[in-house]
Design brief:
8-stranded parallel β-sheet; single chain; 6-stranded parallel β-sheet; 14 strands
Length: 404
């Protein structure tokens, strides 16, 4: 698939807004991929990125990127109004569940920024975003009217596209897949053709018998299962203690699996390292409940998403709660069990062609269903692999470029 022609734009200035620099691997990955794409479309352009701390960027763009803290209001708006293009970068920015005093100002901010840029005659692109169905009149009002002002909306899943269509925002909307699928330094050749993303993707993550069941007798090295969890209940209700039960049920299932063989190892991934919504405490709580700690490794948050992607490539299978942990497992062709805590996880499973048994709801986890799922992914790994191939997914992640 060919990219569009580059633009001669020495005076162009693009402002990118997103949740960057807040120790979230998913946001880090989306930004890195987005910059890689925009670098080829706007090779002479200066970029300003909102970020809370130092972030990893493509080396080719070091001299053309400025960073601004979104809480430094004067610098933020000065850079915004000096720009010729406003980009709202990937992530699920549009939803209205949770605390109203937080969600209304966030959604209102998007409405006002987009409106201000349109009044100034600037282009507004929403690239790689997620949109969840609003449950309140104010959520629908703010989301609908913000998105109607955008010149281009690229959503990362089919559920987001359906949500915008239901609100009457579909004429300039394109369904793509998450930009993190393009996470690589060398994804593009000089002639702008799509390369395979990773040289090290797994074709057969397990050693299998002819009947596709795991051949334990022939395994000569460790079998590592990757795990990513998050404190879902605490995030939306700090008084809710269901996260403790969630961890207990997952730990019980993992302990049974590890007891099956001394070759069974675990890697626990922290995808969000920024309090108060981080994965640190809940991951360490899980670690404390595991019986075979000498075979468990905690992978802390790392600002380099390529490093985390490579760490996941060392796993044989994956249990993911964080959206991008699941996406990284998909990139590495791993048997994947998705803990379905949010519509975006459900949408991803559908869009990549995962079997329904490859998803487990929070209610099923809390009722002890994880034990059986872990046994299934061990015995029938092919039932937990998507039908969509990585190369096709990458092409779909780029299908919006022709309209820019």
């Amino acid at each position: 698939m060919a990219l569009i022609n580059s633009k001669d734009d020495p005076g162009e200035h693009i402002f990118i807004l997103g949740y960057y620099g807040w120790k979230n691997t998913g946001d880090d990955a989306m930004l890195y991929s987005l910059l890689n794409i925009l670098d080829r479309i706007y090779p002479s352009t200066t970029f300003t990125i909102t970020t809370g701390s130092k972030i990893k960027i493509p080396e080719s763009m070091d001299n053309r990127i400025r960073e601004v803290n979104p809480f430094q209001r004067l610098l933020f708006f000065k850079a915004l109004f000096q720009s010729s293009i406003y980009v709202l970068g990937g992530g699920t920015h549009f939803f209205d569940y949770g605390t109203r005093r937080i969600r209304i100002p966030r959604l209102l901010q998007h409405l006002l920024i987009t409106g201000a840029m349109k009044l100034r005659g600037k282009k507004c692109y929403f690239l790689g975003i997620g949109v969840e169905k609003p449950n309140n009149w104010w959520g629908k009002f703010l989301i609908k009217n913000t998105c109607k002002m955008a010149d281009l909306i690229v959503v990362r899943d089919s559920l987001s596209e359906e949500t915008l269509q239901d609100m009457g925002v579909d004429t300039k909307t394109y369904q793509s897949l998450d930009l993190s699928l393009l996470l690589s330094e060398g994804i593009f050749k000089k002639d702008s053709q799509l390369n395979p993303l990773i040289n090290k993707t797994k074709k057969e993550p397990y050693l299998l018998k002819k009947d596709n069941t795991l051949d334990k007798t022939n395994l000569k090295s460790r079998v590592t299962m990757g795990v990513s969890i998050l404190p879902f209940y605490h995030i939306y209700d700090p008084k809710n203690e269901k996260d403790n039960l969630l961890v207990e049920k997952i730990a019980r299932a993992l302990n049974k699996w590890m007891a099956d063989s001394h070759l069974h190892h675990l890697k626990l991934f922290i995808f969000n390292g920024q309090p108060p919504h981080d994965d640190i405490q809940i991951t360490h709580s899980l670690f404390e409940l595991l019986d075979f700690k000498n075979r468990v490794e905690i992978i802390p948050y790392n600002p380099d998403p390529l490093y985390i992607l490579n760490e996941i490539s060392t796993c044989s299978s994956f249990i993911g709660m964080r959206y991008h942990s699941c996406l990284f497992a998909f990139i590495n062709n791993l048997p994947l069990l998705i803990i379905d805590y949010a519509p975006k996880n459900r949408a991803m499973a559908r869009d990549v062609g995962l079997n329904s048994k490859a998803c487990i709801s929070l209610e099923e986890v809390l009722s002890g269903g994880m034990d059986e799922k872990i046994q299934e992914i061990q015995l029938n790994p092919h039932d937990f692999q998507p039908s969509l191939k990585l190369e096709e997914a990458q092409k779909k992640a780029l299908n919006w470029l022709k309209v820019l």
